[in-house]
Amino acid sequence: MTLSHDLGLAASGGASDHRNERVARGVGVALGKCLCQALESGRLKSGILQSASLLQSCPERVLLCLLPVTQNNVCDHALHIHHTLITAFCIEHGIRFLRVNGEDLARAVIRLTDAPSDCPDTGCVRHRASVLCAAPKSDVSCVLIKSPKDGGVSFEDEVVLDYYDEMVKSLVYPKPVLNIPG
User: Fold this and answer.
1) Which residues of the chain fall short of a pLDDT of 50?
2) Is the peptide bond before 116 cis (omega within 30 degrees of 0)?
3) What cellular-component terms does GO give this entry (predicted)?
4) CATH number of the domain that 90 lies in?
């Protein structure tokens, strides 16, 4: 039995669709944890300019590219062109990329980077995360997760990367947009 069979990607229809939804929900949870881990270890880049800079200078350091999808993407021609170019660059350089619900992504990044104003403890995870995130909190038009320096990836990273690999192989079109539970 293959992972795609386990994920229910081999066929479409009733039970398989329900299974796909459960898998996507689990991957969304794992992706939320990946974002948190990346932020805590200083491996998160957010925004078109910071993302383009990292992609240009060291594409081999990028573990995953997240492109938000919102209703506004249809009307924002510049963002659509940016996403098209980033997608092409990712394909050309073998960088994994996922389409993510834009509102979920924004909420997750803002939640992680907002240190509570009443938090005097500079050692708390949320405070450290807000200090490590150099990108403007509001710009989640593209989010990159860099590979860990030691080369090892977490279990959650593996779950998301395996999901991507199976989605690329699957005949499911259009590719799903992941939700990150809040």
Assistant:
1) 1-12, 115, 117-136
2) no
3) cytoplasm; nucleus
4) 3.30.1330.30
